[in-house]
Amino acid sequence: MTASTSKFDARADEYAVQSRIALAGYDACHELAACLLAARLGRGRHARLLVAGAGGTAQEILTTARLAPHWRYTAVDPSGPMLDAARANVAAAGLDARVDFHVGRVEDLPARGRFDAATLIGVLHHLPGSEAKRAVLAALAARLEPGAPLILAGNRGVYASHPLFLSAWSERWRLHGADDAEVEAKLGKILHAAEPPASDAAVAALLAGSGFEAAEMFFSSLFWGAWIALRAA
């Protein structure tokens, strides 16, 4: 992951609240992801999961751990403060012994470490350009067993091409107490600090070009989409 970490360092304290406002259905998306992974891997088996961009809530870990008591996690994030927030949530849930934390990028982990599944949630649209997006997906593929599932979730689509969705986003922040100036500032950050894949087809192409196959969308909320895909054999 090559996105600048500074904006996430500053957002660590508010991320848990703001992410749930920005993404309507935040918890539902994570719950469905956990259910899909459990259905694919089997709840009773021992498995190793790579959680890329784990900083902030560590919701991927907290939710899947409720279903699968034998899964262990490697959590990686380039932002130290964000990873500290995730570490605190993991500790509060009593899951410390099941999680290894690494400040850095997926590419920094040994390629020989083969994982049984991976997640990349809320990351891809922060990476500039197709090459950076393809690089992190390829890095994940290189660390997964053949046939292992990847949960990929993030914004997709050209923001300006969906003015109604942008307006609905604004209203959602107002619904949660933001005034007009705050809404304008939040939209400004989104429009200038993120570069999502242009379409669902672009996401599918990125996955196919990075070592994944059989991608299926399982969740959508305004600009947000979530997929499960398999590491190609």
Structure description:
With 233 residues, the protein is an alpha/beta fold. It folds into two domains: 6-157 and 196-231, Vaccinia Virus protein VP39 (Rossmann fold); 160-195, no CATH class. It has helices spanning 6-11, 15-22, 26-41, 59-67, 80-92, 129-142, 163-175, 180-193, 200-208, and strands spanning 47-52, 71-77, 99-103, 117-121, 149-155, 212-221, 224-231. The protein has a seven-stranded mixed beta sheet, sandwiched between helices. Helix 3 crosses helix 4 and helix 7 (163-175) crosses helix 8 (180-193). It starts with 5 loop residues before the first helix and ends with a strand. The relative contact order is 0.16. The mean pLDDT is 92.
Quick structural overview:
It is built from nine helices and seven strands. It is α/β, with parallel strands linked by helices and 233 residues long.
Q: In terms of topology, how is this protein built?
A:
Layout: H1 6-11, H2 15-22, H3 26-41, E1 47-52, H4 59-67, E2 71-77, H5 80-92, E3 99-103, E4 117-121, H6 129-142, E5 149-155, H7 163-175, H8 180-193, H9 200-208, E6 212-221, E7 224-231
Parallel strand pairs: 1-2, 1-4, 2-3, 4-5
Antiparallel strand pairs: 5-7, 6-7
Helix pairs in contact: 3-4, 7-8
Pfam families: Methyltransf_12
Protein name: Methyltransferase type 12 domain-containing protein
Domain Methyltransferase type: 52-149
